Amino acid sequence: MRKAYVFRLYPTDPQQVRLAAMLAAHCELYNAALEERREAYRKCGITVKVAAQMAQLTGMRAARPDQAVWSFTSQQQTLRRLDKAFAAFFRRLKAGEKPGYPRFRSVRRFDSVDFRHGDGITFGTKGRSKGHAGLRVQGIGVVKIRQHRPLPENAKLGQITIKREGAGPRARWYVVIPVEAGAVPLPETGREIGIDLGVVHLATLSEPIPAVTDEHGHLANPRHLAASADRLATAQQAYARTRRGSNRRRKAAQRIGALHAKVARQRRDHAHKTARALVTNADLLVMEDLRTVNMIRRPVPRPDGNGGHLPNGAAAKAGLNRSILDAGWGVFTSVLESKAEEAGRVLLLVNPTNTSRTCAQCGHCDAVNRTSQAVFACVACNHTTNADVNAAINILRAGTVRRSA
Q1: C-alpha to C-alpha distance for 173 and 141, rounded to whole angstroms
Q2: Which of 35, 166, 281, 315 is spaced 20 to 30 Å from 297 by Cα?
Q3: Tell me, what's the pLDDT at 125?
Q4: What pTM did the predictor assign?
């Protein structure tokens, strides 16, 4: 399996300036290559290949000393990135999907550069600070790095990415190192669990796990976005009072971006810790195959025939959508899939249809069984239990049937 190790960089102030200049130079190269491809096809009907653009790099670097400062290989990787964007465009066009023609990139949104290890970048170089690893980057120098965990033994380093998160002095810099890592199977536990995702609780298990869930099998939902709502509202109000194009407006936008980035990091950290606890304590994990994009769609307007609209529950639906996004189901599912593969566990995704309406005791399916958000009361056998626990048991049963089939 392929695994990405992400370490934070701690550049000095001059190094931050140089890193930003590096991103700007690669952004300029990306846009210039896109312009060449677009104009060649528009005027002459010619498709410019990535190999032809790479062949121009030597002459470009001779004419542009500011571009020659940076790694030749990293510039090749930037041209390959554009080529991948065109390949994806033609693939979607052929499949009848929304094509999405490659667009010019703003320097504020061009946040990463790819390298090849040993050519313009070297990981593991010792910096000036004792006890800290360093990352030597051509044109930048040795950047301090916080390597909070070791790489796998005999890991072959290939592509390395330098990535920026945020903007201005609040920006954070990271290095992403993909490596091939084998699975490390965990000891078998004999436990199989169904997982019902929710909003009140992040998830509910078909059976409680000590030290992981509460006595009912609920996993806590920290609601990181809701916890930061007051600070975000204050920052957005300050942004609204600024003048368009001013430095205060730019700094206010950076504060908002930093708050949202912190929420994303908190959500990702909680997903990693929760997923690790689940794969450690269960051999089989079964989840709903939810389509979050469909679940957060806006309600259809209801015209009243007089030029107005009838109430359609849009305000309540907006609050529900916000809670769904705050729970981070997609992040949690992707992290759980990765950790299950790494630990040698089995993760199955099943159809969620009627899992909340079916009685886990007798199998009777009816919408009236779900009397409230928290209570499930079967009208056929009078079985009463927590609604989320009932759904989790049904999910586990569906996954067991699918696995045996």
Answers
A1: 15
A2: 166
A3: 67
A4: 0.86
